[in-house]
Known about the structure:
Elements: H1 2-7, H2 12-21, H3 27-46, H4 53-64, H5 76-86, H6 93-108, H7 114-124, H8 130-147, H9 154-168, H10 173-188, H11 195-205, H12 211-222, H13 241-248, H14 254-276, H15 291-304, H16 309-326, H17 333-340, H18 348-357, H19 365-378, H20 386-402, H21 409-416, H22 424-440, H23 455-459, H24 478-491, H25 498-511, H26 518-556, H27 561-583, H28 589-602, H29 607-622, H30 644-648, H31 658-668, H32 690-696, H33 699-708, H34 714-731
Amino acid sequence: MVRHNNQLPNNLTQLQNLIKRDPDSYKDEFRQQLAHFETALEIFNLNPTQYDKKLDEQAMFLAQVTQCYQKEMKNFPQKIVDILKTHNTTMHNNMRLSLCKCLILIRNKNFISAFDLLELFFSLIKCQDKHLREYLKTHIITDIKNMNMKHKDMKLNSTLQNFIFSMLRETNTKTAKLAIDILIELYHKNIWNDHKTVNIIADVGCFSKVTKVMVASLKFFLSRDEEDKPDSDSDDEVDPRETMIANKFNKKTRKRDKMLDKVKKIAKKNKRKKEKAPIFNFSALHLINNPQGFAEKLFKQMESSNERFEVKLMTLDVVSRLIGLHNLFLFNYYPFIARLLMPHQREVTRILQFAAQASHELVPPEVIEPIMKAIANNFITERNSTDVMAVGLNAVREICARCPLAIGEDLLRDLVQYKLYKEKSVMMAARSLIQLYRQTMPSLLHKKDRGRPSEASIELKTKKYGEVDTKDYIPGSEVLLEKEEIKEKKGKKKPKSKNDDSEDEWIDVASSDSEINISTDSENENTEDEAEEIEEEGKEEESESELEDEDEEQQNETYNKEENDNRTNESIKSRKVLKVKRGSSKPNIEEKIKVARDAAMDKIFTDEDFKRIEAAQLKKSISGVKRNRSVIEEENESTELVQLSAIENIHKKRKHDKSARLETVLKGREERDKYGYKDRRKNANCSKTNREKKKTKSYQMVKHKARGKIKRSFKEKQIAFRNYLIKQKKMR
């Protein structure tokens, strides 16, 4: 035991373990080690450039047992801080890192304040030690995160923020870069995600003279705060599964399959829009206090700067996002962008993206006109390649999706003519432009390009510049009152004759347009289509019956008189039924608005009512005015930020060369059994197949099989057939 105690001063790890278990029993050993530390510290001060292993071990030991002897270790943290402040640049890298680890260990035990340690670490950033800078940055972020884990100390956070903001204004590149990195990381971790942090980065970071700090600040505003949520196939609000179930019991036709696919697509798109709505609501660009002044100042700095082209592009991107998100007025931005819109310009697709992002409904058409002319003259001309033309048309579509008045009627109709272009990429881009204006401003299109009208397109109102379409009712709420009327009619229904029952069935199908379910809507549309087909067949049968009647009247006029009267009465009755059904299918717009206004005034809508209204609005998009056929193609979703893929999306024919075909063939063979002969032997080593046995047999045993497989030529077959006929003739 005595021998063991004599070894304790040299075995610091074991002594540290024993002290943590029983501090009072090993107080003398601790004081001895504290005296050794004082001696090692004095020796180190004589030559601070050398690495002192003894001091390193003593300091780490004392840091581990600080909580056991708080009175004796009261001045220990300050001594380490004084060493680092005095010899921060001349000290050996390993020694400096080791002393920083000691301070971090003491800070984790809360024996030193966060502000004192933060001030020291920022002074150490100036040292030429990349590993130390990364280590200190990680600790600062982790420490502030841990302080705000349970509750936020606003006073301490404000003190730390002000200190880091002051470091951001430093002329030293490394200090300012560390400060901006810490602020950005803490924002993304939702610790300092307030207005103050964002506006300091905007006002100080984006206008810093240090290029690295400015680039980091611009990247911060270009990054997303949240990842895109995966698309969900389950639609809570509008469920297409009932439509699928209803279609199982109907006759399978191509028209019904198309209707089902489009109902699924529209329902899924509505769900996706609801999920994507709050993604950018709390982004950094929304938290800027003065977006107009910030955008003007940033654009002015970019015009007069001599930075690299990539940095200027980032600045233009931030400015375009600010204009689009906050509906700003920065009229000098559009002519500047228009000068860069040339097909040979570097990163021209991104510049087109910036032009689309900077478009909104409040931009006057004459201000955005230079961009539209530049795109039309430089991109959408037949002297360019088809890819360039398609990119230009896509850019026009994205701009017009956010600012429909950006293009005039004449230019729009000229661009629409490319819908019949020989190349598919240009043709599809032009058709997407047509589809956009069908849903927003169909009056600008030529009549033949507007497509078959639907209820939704009839209700569209062409807005002028600055006009706001406000409604004093909830669109689609008329279905609630219509459903109640249908229930009342069904309750008062009386028994009728057989012919009257058929009429009621037709009327019920037509009036069920106000049903809230997609399944019933699709069934109604299918029955209406069938009714139209029945009507057309009835007309043909009627014409045929009239011809037959004329012949019969010529032969026997008196005999067929009553029979002809019965036929005409039945045809007239069926046509009346169809007219009643078709006439009662849809009221005009004024009546619907009046009914919707009454519904909004009379009752408070529940969640179920809003689901019915949404289903009714969905039906308006897929039901026509005269015929209930789907006219809605895939919608162009206009999000807050323009996706670069929307401009670069070029429809091309698939490659049909040998390598492409071979690649698809090999891909199809994956996870598939091999074709050809299959050896079904249980053990290949001790049994043989019939094919293998045949090789060892004599020819006399297998010649009958070999002869049967020989194919005769056409001439041999002719000779054999001739001999057969001669033989048959002789036998007779």
